[in-house]
Amino acid sequence: MAHGQPGIGCACLLEQRKAAIDPLKAFIYLALASLLGLPAAVLANPVSQRVLNVGYYEFAPAIYTDAQGMARGELAELTRRVARQAGYGVRFRGLPGARLYAALENGSIDLWPGAQGKPELATHTLEGRHTLSQINLNLYRLAGTPAPRLPDDLAGKSLILIGGYSYWPKVNALLDDPGLDLRLLRTSNHLSALEMLQRNRGDYLLDYQIPVEQARQRLRMEALPYQRLAQVPIHFIVSRHARDAATIVTALDDAYEALRVAGEDLSLPSD
């Protein structure tokens, strides 16, 4: 028994040293977190940081893919800031609309900073409580064209759409109404859509205001008259099939609120 006592003494000494070091380590992590504006849990255990797969589709200038394949734009940056505050990393993945929705439905995408209230996503997603921005869906026409009485004056007309975008029940009902006999002309981007309208290759353009304004300025076009069909709030949308989905939504909501209370500028371009 006496022969074993030195070992016991060494073990006690090690435990005492560990107890002394751990509080110091915790203090250092907290100090770094305060200086860098990062959650202490991220610095304390960076290896285990959860990385969220964030899906988006091209919606310049709010969120888009740059020449190096990186997600850029103010909505992308806000998503990074809020996720970092919540203790998450992010990995962005650009997808066409239909594939993005499918990825939210199967859980391969955790988060989409996108449109609230999509009926097809209702059973597959949880929505954050904060409105990040609002965008308008408009019906554009050339200057000098009379404002149509909706929906009757659209009968037999051609309507330019952006391929891959989806809309809301009222808008879809208008597009699918057999009595209107609409000719739907799809193109791949906002620049080509405006050029089609400008060249009278379609009677009207159905598109979102923020990307249309950017494209119009690039083309040096005059402002176009329009009628607003819908106003869409942008929220954090989390797949219900993501691991700990409810925890993610709450963490992002709390992080957004903490940044707002701290006086951070969280404003985004809105229509």
UniProtKB/TrEMBL annotation:
Record's keyword annotation contains Transmembrane helix: yes
Recite the UniProt keywords alphabetically: Membrane, Transmembrane, Transmembrane helix
Q: Which organism is it from?
A: Stutzerimonas stutzeri CCUG 29243
Transmembrane regions listed in the UniProt entry: 26-44
Identify this protein by name.
Answer: Bifunctional lytic transglycosylase/amino acid ABC transporter substrate-binding protein
Please spell out the taxonomic lineage of the organism that makes this protein: Bacteria, Pseudomonadati, Pseudomonadota, Gammaproteobacteria, Pseudomonadales
